Amino acid sequence: MLSIQGLKKVYSTGSGDVEAVRDLTFELVQGEFVCIVGPSGAGKTTLLRCIAGLLDATAGTITLAGETVTGPPRGMAVVFQEYGRSLFAWMTVRENVELPLKAQGVAKAERKRLAAEALEAVSLSHATDSYPWQLSGGMQQRVAIARAIAFQPKVLLMDEPFAAVDAQTRAELEDLLLDIWKRMGVTVLFVTHDIDESVYLGERVLILSHSPTVVQEDLKIDLPDERDQLTTRSLTRFAQLRGHVYEQIQRAKKNHAHDDDTQS
Question: Is there a contact between 24 and 7 (Cβ–Cβ < 8 Å)?
Fold first, then answer.
């Protein structure tokens, strides 16, 4: 479904080139839920923007359903952390959700139907005519998710979408996302700084090295398919997986510090 082969990203600056992503290769099959974690500055957002066609890669290829990604592909949607900046304050919830559909030339009646279905999926049917500024942060992020799933994408990219909400809302949004994923069968690539979140949500966790970035480990999450905030997080295996991911991230940091010492 989604293939990343030899991805590299180099930024040119006044003081020289900066290699953000060195050599990333991985694949997602249809309907898979994969999380990405790594040290701060590991290039997770850079990677996601390249995959979304919002940023040109220096080298390597990205393909979606066999087609090379050279710009934002129609079968892909992105949800960012800054939900307040991604929604238009002067548009109602329904108008925000319909906006990408309108841009794609979807007929008005069909736009209305798809938006209604998406808002029902995130439990916001009652807020159709509200404005984003009238909603809580968690509800605004639900609107952003509804907008992303309204045109039924093949792949959903999520860049720390729950980082700005409180713990209780975060747990609710995690379970909402799992429910949407199972019902829609969409492929999800989810970037997070939260180790527990990556283990709770993912079928696999890609652990990135420090920048310049490579995949340090591709970890299979062998937890029961049905996840529950209390039951799943209390499992011994959950704690073991969480500990392993934490150790790998600390290892990435130490390797980066060692490389800096060697070069100095």
Answer: yes
CA–CA distance, 29 with 45 (Å, rounded to integer): 21
Q: Which residues of 118-152 are buried (b: 16+ CB within 10 A; e: fewer)?
A: bbebbebeebbeebbeebeebbbbbbbbbbbbbbe
The C-alpha atoms of residue 202 and residue 36 are separated, in whole angstroms, by 9
Q: What is the pTM of this model?
A: 0.90
Type and span of the H or E element at 62: strand 59-64
Peptide bond into 212 cis (omega under 30): yes
Q: pLDDT of 136-166, one tens digit each?
A: 988 998 999 999 999 889 999 999 999 888 8
Phi, psi dihedrals of residue 261, rounded to the nearest 5°: -65, -40
Task: Give the C-alpha distances (Å, rounded to integers) separating 45 from 9, 54, 78, 86, 143.
Answer: 12, 11, 12, 16, 21
Q: What one-character DSSP code corresponds to residue 91?
A: S
Residue located via tokens 């050599």: 23
- pLDDT tens for each residue of 191-222: 999 999 999 999 999 999 887 888 999 999 99
Strand partners, 16: 13
Which H, E and C letters describe 204-223, residue by residue? Answer: EEEEECCCCEEEEEEEECCC
CA distance 77 to 263: 40
